[in-house]
């Protein structure tokens, strides 16, 4: 089967290259036959990539340990489900998976536009397939998952078949980790579609809002998947890594955050272009930047550039990625300069306090955040170049910059949507923000009196309350007016209102979710932790809880051995939960992992992890954390996804019935 | 409002935000930075090594891991030189830590005058995490 895979990949590379060239020629010559050929090329590329994926899945399921990738990422005892998802657990397989997603998206875009956008499409295909060529090259030459592993024996290389594989990294054997990579990859690859249309618009000179309208949903889908992927990654780290946190400003985490930041800037600033024809170059730059950062993110995750500059130079994947990024960057910049006359703004900013400038400050903050995260992530590389020494910055540095930016963005989340276009009068400011402002000041004072002294936490809670009030009143006000005009009941009116303008109200829901997530982040200010030695029958006090140790021991299955501690958690004398933290030793990989136990409420999480045992083995040592409000992050994540889905739904159109729609509705209510 | 007046306002607004962020970046840098070195590079720093927060990378020396309860001592090696590490942090010890593992370790902390490294954080990367290392196992299967 490895041979089949090799054949597919060998075929994929020239086929993708061919399609790219034909698509470009189709764009130049406007010849229908070439365009048809390039479209068929895209479908063919998708079929070949799918076959390659199926071949690799076949190898994984069948457990062909002569294949290096299968050997390195699975073993016989691994459950079948994990064998399937091992596809994206390792380096080579995940790059092939990347290729499969981009070819799938290409095929989807070609199908969606089979009768539309005839002018743009050849160059869209050209750009998407051009990106695919790069990944297909990596798949074939640099990171080929179909390579068998060879052993040097008496001077000759021989393929070896092992009895069993090394197993899937146990840290990856978790549901969140199973969906986290595909979700993030869809987010990454989704950025390619708006980029491809932007490039097509630049090449053809069709620089109106056409390309923006076509790609609006793609940009949002990619944005939503990036957000969900990042949050899932945080969830995975929290429940699986056992250090009590969900985010550490690790380079790999930052790599996923970067394109999300620019993408967030774009989904906002694009509204100004649609409405006022402003910021055209800026939007172009954001789309291009998001694409480059998505590729860069894949590269950062896969090359090890930050953890070690030396590994980067040696891996072979580094120079390939750098060249590709540089090429894409230069081509984009040249295109923008070439078309700069057509990208002039049609209008100008009129007032510092207006919707437009709200968006502009939002963009400024997101771009500064991007620059800061990038600077901090690459600081070892930058300092190496300038001082010859690698200097790193850690979480405190990132927090110093990102917390203020985050709070400023949070404030804009509430204020921005209520500012009027062009300029906002003092009177309307007072009307929109007067009550929530007073209310949040009252809350601030209440928290101060209650003894809260942390400035950031006070600021964050006050702003969150302010923004939430504004969002809620938008829904309530709108529903009240609609209910009065149509005779619908209040909830019905709110539902209809939302469905009639999904973009606006879905946006509010996403903003509300952001507030909830920020409240969750803020809880970290009040984290507590302690280390405890526990013996069966003993108990200790922690964070307002009593923890009793009931049992301690070990069990075993075919995949791993487990040491466990069984604790009971009491609050005010009442038992609230059982906690069973474990330490597992996986046989195939000989790797131990910690399984944490979490008692989670909206108020706080109690999080326990086994860190060791006493010398004679009679007592266990546990680390216990009290992490307030963490659950709000996960709740907010779900709401955010729901809001994003709502934004993607087309507006519901009411059938116009001029005759007493309201009267009829009233009748229905009465009946 | 005249158009030049507007421009000034916008420029000032944007300027203040940018200056604020740069100021934050600089103040954050004073609070938190570390030299990222390998074991041999630390030793070649001379007395400077004692003055800065360091992140040191090396391979775990098998058989040197001594766990006493939640206490941990071990050695890392790189380029033929080894360094004694004493873990003083509060985070749980990474799971990869035991005497049989091939692991690359990055420790964060300071080098004490007795040349024992006081580590506040330990990151361990199992050698097989992403790139499978096939040496060793091959013999076993033959």
* Strand residue percentage of chain B: 35-45%
Count of strand segments of chain B: 7
Average pLDDT metric of chain A: 88
Strand order of the largest sheet of chain B: 2-4-5-7-6
Q: What is the CA–CA distance across the termini of chain B?
A: 85 Å
Number of strands of chain A: 13
| Helix content class of chain A | 55-70%
User: What class, by secondary structure content of chain B?
Assistant: alpha+beta
Apparent shape of chain A: globular
Helix count of chain A?
21
Question: What would CATH call the architecture of the largest domain in chain B?
Answer: Beta Barrel
The quaternary state of the protein chains shown equals heterodimer
Spatial extent as radius of gyration of chain A = 28 Å
Summarize, please.
The complex is a heterodimer of chains A (671) and B (142). Helices cover 63% and strands 13% of the residues of chain A. With 671 residues, chain A is an alpha+beta fold.
Keywords:
heterodimer; A: 671 residues; alpha+beta; 4 domains; six-stranded antiparallel sheet; 21 helices; 13% strand; disordered C terminus; B: alpha+beta; OB fold (Dihydrolipoamide Acetyltransferase, E2P); 2 domains; five-stranded mixed β-barrel
Explain how this protein is built:
- The complex is a heterodimer of chains A (671) and B (142).
- Chain A folds into four domains: 1-148; 174-395, no CATH class; 406-524 and 640-653 and 666-670, no CATH class; 525-631, no CATH class.
- In chain A, 63% of the residues lie in helices and 13% in strands.
- Chain A has helices at 2-29, 32-62, 68-73, 80-85, 91-112, 121-142, 175-190, 192-204, 210-241, 251-276, 280-303, 309-315, 317-338, 355-387, 395-415, 426-449, 455-486, 490-500, 502-522, 630-648, 661-670, and strands spanning 150-153, 156-159, 390-392, 528-534, 539-542, 545-556, 560-571, 574-579, 582-586, 591-595, 597-600, 604-613, 620-628.
- Chain B folds into two domains: 1-33; 35-130, Nucleic acid-binding proteins (OB fold (Dihydrolipoamide Acetyltransferase, E2P)), CATH 2.40.50.
- Chain B has three helices and seven strands, in the order αβαββββββα.
- In chain B, a hairpin with a 2-residue loop joins β3 and β4 (71-78).
- At the A-B interface, α3, α14, β3, α15 and β4 of A face α1, β1 and α3 of B.
């Amino acid at each position: 089967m490895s041979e089949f895979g090799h054949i597919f990949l060998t075929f994929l590379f020239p086929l993708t290259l061919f399609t790219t060239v034909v698509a470009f020629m189709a764009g130049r010559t406007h010849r229908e036959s070439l365009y048809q050929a390039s479209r068929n090329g895209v479908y063919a590329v998708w079929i070949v990539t799918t076959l390659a994926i199926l071949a690799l899945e076949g190898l994984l399921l069948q457990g062909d340990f002569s294949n290096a990738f299968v050997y390195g990422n699975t073993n016989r005892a691994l459950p079948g489900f994990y064998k399937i998802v091992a596809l994206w657990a390792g380096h080579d397989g995940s790059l092939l998976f990347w290729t499969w997603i981009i070819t799938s998206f290409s095929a989807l875009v070609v199908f969606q536009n089979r009768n539309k956008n005839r002018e743009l499409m050849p160059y869209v295909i050209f750009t998407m397939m051009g990106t695919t060529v790069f990944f297909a090259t990596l798949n074939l030459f640099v990171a080929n998952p179909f390579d068998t592993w060879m052993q040097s024996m008496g001077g000759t290389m021989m393929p070896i078949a092992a009895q069993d594989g090394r197993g899937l990294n146990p840290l990856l054997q978790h549901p969140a980790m199973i969906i986290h990579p595909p979700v993030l990859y869809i987010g990454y690859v989704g950025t390619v579609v708006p980029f491809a249309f932007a490039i097509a618009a630049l090449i053809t000179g069709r620089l109106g809002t056409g390309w923006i309208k076509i790609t609006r949903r793609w940009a949002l889908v990619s944005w939503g998947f990036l957000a969900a992927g990042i949050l899932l990654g945080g969830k995975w780290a929290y429940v699986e890594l056992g250090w009590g946190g969900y985010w550490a400003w690790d380079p790999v985490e930052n790599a996923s955050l970067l394109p999300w930041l620019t993408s967030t800037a774009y989904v906002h600033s694009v509204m100004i272009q649609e409405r006022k024809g402003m910021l055209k170059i800026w939007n172009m730059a954001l789309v291009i930047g998001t694409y480059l950062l998505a590729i860069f993110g894949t590269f950062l995750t896969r090359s090890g550039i930050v953890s070690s500059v030396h590994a980067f130079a040696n891996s072979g994947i580094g120079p390939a990625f750098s060249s590709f990024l540089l090429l894409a960057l230069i081509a984009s910049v040249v295109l923008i300069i070439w078309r700069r006359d057509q990208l002039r703004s049609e209008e100008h900013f009129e007032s510092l306090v207006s919707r437009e400038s709200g968006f502009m400050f939002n963009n400024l903050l997101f771009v500064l955040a991007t620059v800061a995260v990038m600077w901090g992530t690459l600081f070892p590389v930058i300092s190496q170049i300038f001082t010859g020494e690698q200097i790193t910055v850690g979480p405190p540095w990132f927090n110093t910059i990102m917390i203020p930016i985050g709070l400023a963005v949070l404030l804009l989340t509430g204020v921005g949507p209520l500012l009027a276009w062009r300029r906002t009068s003092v009177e309307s400011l007072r009307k929109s923000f007067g009550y929530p402002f007073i209310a949040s000041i009252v809350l601030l004072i209440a928290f101060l009196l209650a003894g809260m002294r942390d400035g950031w936490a006070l600021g964050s809670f006050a702003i969150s309350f302010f923004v939430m009030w504004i969002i809620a009143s938008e829904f309530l006000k709108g529903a009240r007016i609609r209910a009065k005009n149509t005779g619908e009941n209040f909830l019905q009116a709110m539902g209809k209102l939302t469905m009639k303008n999904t973009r606006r109200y879905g946006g509010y829901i996403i903003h509300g979710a952001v507030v909830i997530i920020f409240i969750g982040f803020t809880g970290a200010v009040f984290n507590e932790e302690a280390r405890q030695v526990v013996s069966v029958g003993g108990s200790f006090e922690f964070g307002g809880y009593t923890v009793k140790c009931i049992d301690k021991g070990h069990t075993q299955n075919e995949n791993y051995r487990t040491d466990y501690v069984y604790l009971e958690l009491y609050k005010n004398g009442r038992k609230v939960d059982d906690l069973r933290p474990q330490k597992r030793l996986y046989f195939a990989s000989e790797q131990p992992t910690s399984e944490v136990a979490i008692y989670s409420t909206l108020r706080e999480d109690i999080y326990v992890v086994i860190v060791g045992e006493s010398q004679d083995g009679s007592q266990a040592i546990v680390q216990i954390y009290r992490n307030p409000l963490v659950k709000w992050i996960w709740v907010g994540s779900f709401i955010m996804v729901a809001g994003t889905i709502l934004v993607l739904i087309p507006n519901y159109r009411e059938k116009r019935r001029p005759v007493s729609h309201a009267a009829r509705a009233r009748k229905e209510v009465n009946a | 409002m005249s158009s030049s007046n507007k421009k000034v306002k916008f420029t000032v607004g944007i300027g203040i935000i940018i200056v604020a962020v740069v100021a934050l970046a600089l103040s954050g840098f004073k609070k938190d930075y570390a030299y990222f070195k390998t074991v041999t590079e630390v030793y070649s720093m001379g007395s400077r090594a004692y003055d800065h927060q360091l992140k040191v990378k090396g391979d775990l020396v098998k058989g040197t891991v001594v766990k006493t309860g939640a206490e941990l001592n071990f050695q890392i090696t790189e380029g033929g030189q080894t360094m004694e590490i004493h873990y003083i942090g509060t985070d749980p010890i990474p799971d990869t830590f035991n005497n049989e593992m091939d692991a690359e370790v990055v420790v964060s902390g300071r080098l004490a005058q007795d040349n024992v490294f006081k580590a506040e954080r330990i990151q361990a990367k199992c050698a097989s995490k992403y790139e499978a290392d096939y040496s060793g196992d091959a013999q076993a299967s033959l």
